[in-house]
Amino acid sequence: MSEIDDASGGFAERYGSRAEGVWSAPGRVNLIGEHTDYNDGFVLPFAIDRRTAVALGDRDDRVIRVASTIESDAAEVALDALTPDAVDGWAAYPLGVAWAPGEFGAGLSGVGGVDLAIASTVPIGAGLSSSAAIVCAVALALDEHWRLGFDRPTLAKVGRLAENRAAGAPTGIMDQMAALSGEAEHAVFLDCRRLEADLVPLGFEAAGLSLLVIDTRVAHEHAANGYAERRASCEAGARTLGVESLREVRVDDLPRAQALLDDESFRRVRHVVTENRRVLDTVRALREHGPSAIGPFLDASHASLRDDFEVSVPELDLAVATAQANGAIGARMTGGGFGGAAIALMIDPLVPVVAREVAAAFAEQGYREPTVFTVRPSEGARRDL
Ligand code: GLA
User: Quick check: is 60 catalytic?
Assistant: First the structure.
């Protein structure tokens, strides 16, 4: 059973009728470009083969109902009473998406209510953007059903606003753009200032490579605070350096930055500046030499996130070090950090070896058993039925 069947089956069970359509959006892995999106920089995520599906049916009143297989509690709100704070918990994501188009100029006074049923195979809390998968699937469904006519970058902004309000985290635009623009076997090279997405062939399969996700299952309570603090520190750094965003600082400018900033602020800035460079280097290496050539950039990204940006945790460091020690081409934490998952790129036959060694290393440290699985670069949000 796929998430698409689960969403339409769940719809029929919950509401006693057939859904009019099913839309879905994927989770994402960020290959490289971490904590650069909210600094107007570069990112290189790809959509994965785990998706969230939403089945939608029309109603003849102005009520919106949501149910999901993720949580048992359903929610119901009148469209006219919809505010970003109307509900708590997971339902704030889909309902936030129903509210947000109004903030982008859509007139919602004439639209009818809907019933939504959601199902997902994106692991929650693993740093694979399960929340972006929900908001993007719902945004695409409502855009079509309500004939909003938004383009994908605007839908990404609708999704981000819903997430910012629902989760209270001032996240960037990477996750939503990855979920909406991904293609099979490609990464999304995104310039977050221009919001333009360029597809870059990854060629993992042709090169006999697999991308392993190691979910540490560490969910840090302070992730939202830590994220907001890092973002504030980047903004303060940009102000001190007299630029609008850290995107404008080049590697050559770092000595000047070091002279102007305290040690911690300087290291935060250095991470962002060098990470932007690593994204560009990775894109060039992929295009000129293929995926086997990108390992050093992934490794350097992890070191920078660990030492300069300080968003890694011991479990992520151990996952990365163990993958590297067992022959991975490159490895790094992925996503915001403070827990979540690491990724490791390796030749196919190494997958069981690295999986076993990581599990053994975690057991030896007394860490919780990690969840390990491979992912394939996949298609972005779409209508399925
Ligand atoms: C989270 C956010 C993204 C991005 C990453 C860090 O995933 O949702 O916008 O900032 O962290 O790269």
Answer: no
